[in-house]
Amino acid sequence: MVDGWYDDAAIALEFDGKLKYTDPWRGRTPGQVLWEEKRREDALRSLDVRVVRIADEDVDRGWDALDRRLRGMLGVAGPVDRRFTAVPRAIGRPRVG
């Protein structure tokens, strides 16, 4: 599951905050979180999905550069022969219990 998705261009957006890496939850260490993120991104890239990681600084001071980068990437269609299926989920977090 990714944080954002541009289907036609096969671009996955991942929003990264420092807290995810410096104070992880579920009993994981920062190293485990980083390794899990790396493996997930490797899996996406192996399917010809382009991944854009977005940090707070990109939304704040770096918005213009991020906007140019995304627009450039969106101008290139994603793979014609897809080895993946995009499945939208309901808006918001899934309910537990």
Task: Report on the architecture of this protein.
The protein has 97 residues and is of the alpha+beta class. The protein has one domain (4-74). Helices cover 39% and strands 15% of the residues. It is built from 4 helices and 3 strands, in the order E-E-H-H-E-H-H. The chain has helices spanning 18-22, 30-46, 56-59, 63-74; strands at residues 4-6, 11-16, 50-55. It has a 3-stranded mixed sheet with strand order 1-2-3, sandwiched between helices. The chain is globular and about 40 Å long.
SSE inventory with pairings:
Layout: E1 4-6, E2 11-16, H1 18-22, H2 30-46, E3 50-55, H3 56-59, H4 63-74
Descriptive key words:
alpha+beta; 4 helices; three-stranded mixed β-sheet; 97 residues
The value of Rg in angstroms is 15 Å
Cα-to-Cα separation, first versus last residue: 20 Å
Helix content: 25-40%
The total of beta strands comes to 3
- Poorly predicted segments: none
How many DSSP helices?
A: 4
Along the chain, the helix and strand elements come as: EEHHEHH
Structural classification: alpha+beta
Please state the average pLDDT score.
89
Strand content: 15-25%
Oligomeric description of these chains: single chain
Strands in their spatial order, largest beta sheet: 1-2-3
Q: Structurally, how many domains make up the residues?
A: 1
Concise synopsis of the structure shown:
The chain is α+β, with helices and mostly antiparallel strands.
